[in-house]
Structure formats: C-alpha cells, structure tokens
Fold:
Amino acid sequence: MGGFPRSEHTEMNQWIAVGALAVVGLLIPIGMMVVSYLIRPSVPETSKRATYESGEVPTGGTRIRFNIQYYMVALLFVVFDIETVLLFPWAVVYRDALGEVGVVHAMGPMLLFVGILVVGLAWAWRTGAVEWAKSPRQVEPEVDRP
Amino acid sequence: MTGVAPLQSGETYLLPERIADLTGLGEFGVLGELVAAFVGAFIVGSLMLAMTGVAGPWAKRKITAAFTDRIAVNHLGPAGIFIIVADSVRLLSKENIIPEDADRPAYDLAPIVIAASALLGFAVIPMGSGIHLADPEVGLAYVFAIAGIASIGLIMAGYASGNKYSMLGGLRAVAQNIAYEIPLVVTGMSVVIFAGSLQMSTIVEAQAEPLVTVAGLSIPAWYAIVNPFAFVLFLVANFAEVGRNPFDMPEAPAELVAGYQTEYSSVYFVLVYLGEFLHIFLGGAIITTIFLGGPAGPGPAELGIVWFLVKIWGVFLLTQWLRSAIPRVRIDQLIEIGWKGMLVLAFANLVLTAVIVALIDAPGL
Structure:
C-alpha cells in the first residue's frame, strides 16, 4: 500500500459494515410488519381468504405437476454460470498478463474456453434446446383438445 | 495478486470509518466500530428507502401521467407530494388477507427476502460525498450475487401463494433471470477487463481521467463512452433482470393479474413493491458505478452524492419511459432474445473488448 498516508483514520473490517446493512435490511421490513400488525384491523371472513381466480370459485390447487418448459435452458444456465465465475479471475488479471506473457498467452486460453462453450451453445441451438418448449396440447391439432 | 490492483482495500475512507472518527467511537474498539457500522448502514438504508418512497407512490404516477397526458396526484401538498405520507399510512393500516392455500413460513418470508436482498446490494456502491459503506476487493461479484438472491424471493412468493397466477409469475421470473443473468455478468466483465479490478472504488477511479478534450470540454473516460456497445447490452440485460418493461413478464398485468404478488396485501404488498423499486435503483446504481463514472461530475467532489442521485434517477426515468413506450415481449420471445441474441452478443463483446485492450496496451503485438 506503499506510502499512502492512511494511519490517520480508523480502519475497520469492511464486512462489519456489510453485516450491519444486512441486519438493518432485515430490521426495516420486520419493523414495518410490526407497525402494520399494531394498526391494521382484522375482520375474519372465510370467503375473503379464497384464492383469487378472477372472481370465479377457485378450481383445483397449485400443487400439481407442471411443465415449466425451460428445463433444458435451466441446465444450460448452470454450465454458463460456472463459466462466468471461472472467467472473472481471467478478466481481472488480463491487462497485467498482456504485459507479462504477451497477447497469445493472455487471450488464447480464454478464446479456447469460450469457443468450447460456443460450440455447445450452437449444438443446443440446433437441437432446439434454447427454445420455449411447446406442451403436447400446443403441438397437437385443434380437434384433439378436450 | 500483488501489483494487479492499483488500490488495495482500506485505502478508501469509508463511511463507518468516517463516523467512527467524527464521533470518537473508534476509541472504543470493536464495539465502537460496530456502532459506527450500524449508523452508517442506517444512513445508507434510509437514503435508499426514502428514494423508493418518493419513486413508488409519487414519481412513478407523475411520470406515467406525463407520458399519457394526464395530471395524476395533485390534491395533497405541492404537486401532490404528500401522497407519499397518505399512501404509507393507507397501505400499512390495510387488513392483511392471507389466502387459505398459502404456505405460511415461505409466504411470510418472501417479502422480507425481496426487500432485504435489494437493500444489501447498496453496501458496496460508492455514492460520493463519502457515502460508501464497504469497499471489498470482490465488490462487483458481490453486488451481482446479492442482486441474484431476489429471484429466490420471487419464486418463494409465487409458489407459497397457492395461486395459479402467482405460480406462473414466479416461474417466469426464474426463466427470465436465468436467461439474462449471464449476458449481464459477462457484459459487466468487459468493464473488469478495462479496470483490472472488481473493486468498486478502483472501477470508478479508472473512469476519472478525461478521454479526449474537445474545444475545452473534456469528455470523461466513462465506460459508457469508451464501450457504448457494452453499455447498451448491459442496460437491456438489466431491465430484464429487474423485470421492467419490455421484460415485465413476471407481473404482466394483462395476463397474470399481478404475477407473483397477486395474493399479497397490506404491509406484505408494500414490501414486495418496495423491493421492486429498490431493485430498479440497485440496477441503476450498478450501471452508474461501472458505466457512468459513479459519483463523478462537474463541480467540487462534495457534490458527488448529487451527481450519483441524478444518474440513478436518470436510469429510473428510462425504465418509466420504456414502460410507457414499448410493448411487452412474449415469454417465448423473451427466452429467444436472451439465449440467441443477448448471450451471443455478450460473448462477442467480451472477445472484442479483450482484442481492443490488447491493441491499446500492446500496439505492436
């Protein structure tokens, strides 16, 4: 930290402040909930608590098996997310590495790494994995619908 | 890592340290530091909540009204500004109706998760005028990580409500977040290549020098000017990430009532709504810090907070402009824009930035 005049002021561990903000960030919503609990009325009535379905009587629950239609995309996300994590250290040292080991050694590994994933993405693209999957009911002709 | 980052942690005079010095709390050891940290955190938290308080009940209505040629709130106080007080009292004193199918602990926790995660992100943002809570070396990675927690809150709200609209909204939120998180982070990475650090203060400092001087006017080396392509990509990915138009699929009032927040009322609704605005401002704060020079601006350095607020309100105005001007995309289009468009462009931008930096730093190769 060479020569920087820094002993003049208090030095604290940074994460104390982050932790403090986490506590404040939890206390503010909880405080609001308490205030609201104290001033709001409570008029229990069963029909009021019915699930909202545009005014109709609700049919069926939501704990059902449901086609989320982006399963393949979610798998791809895991791969690419790990890739971004691994690229961050490279991005930080890149400028210094340019001076120390030259362009080829600094940029080459990244290009190879990204290249492999781009090939993977191209394959997923061709097989239709990066699309909103159509449910069987959408694919079948109109007459087959119940 | 020695010699990589020009600034090591601890060189920025942070807000809690300043408070400790001004009040003499620093002499009380760890306990004094804790108190100073809490005072600092409270200041930052209140500042951000005050901004959402102004934005949510008042500014949003006024801006939308201006776009649609209406007047909006105008009865309480000058330009209807006291609607903020009236709305807070009204919403907090509403009956809290909990739907009968709700999954209780998760249903109650979701609003807290959404609001708290957005607030926590502001810890590493340099706001100018000495308002900077913490400056860890992993600042940018931290803020992306914290902003990502909100998706957990959204899917908690969506599933636990026991409502079909809510569930669809929650699942859409996840589809959207996973499609745009990677373009967002990879575009942010192109800034890291320029700055050579993840530390927020270093990124801001790297944008301080003038890029070129045209007729006495010096244009600063903000990364929005140095790399406009990355800036536009980041803006678009950010709008998708915080769920604003044209990517407001998780709420989509015309299709899903209110998406994941359909079954929330009273204080829970306030918290979810608050969390949304906090996320818009957090997105604005990230954009400001890594692309718009943070608190930099003309005038003395003490004006930093003013310029910072001007910039994040600029981003907020842009979200409201888009809300009034651009129709919503369809969910399958959203996935395709994300994976076939933004992702490819983001990686192209990363490679392009690496090449440009190589040409700047080693012209002869």
In short: The radius of gyration of chain A is 28 Å.
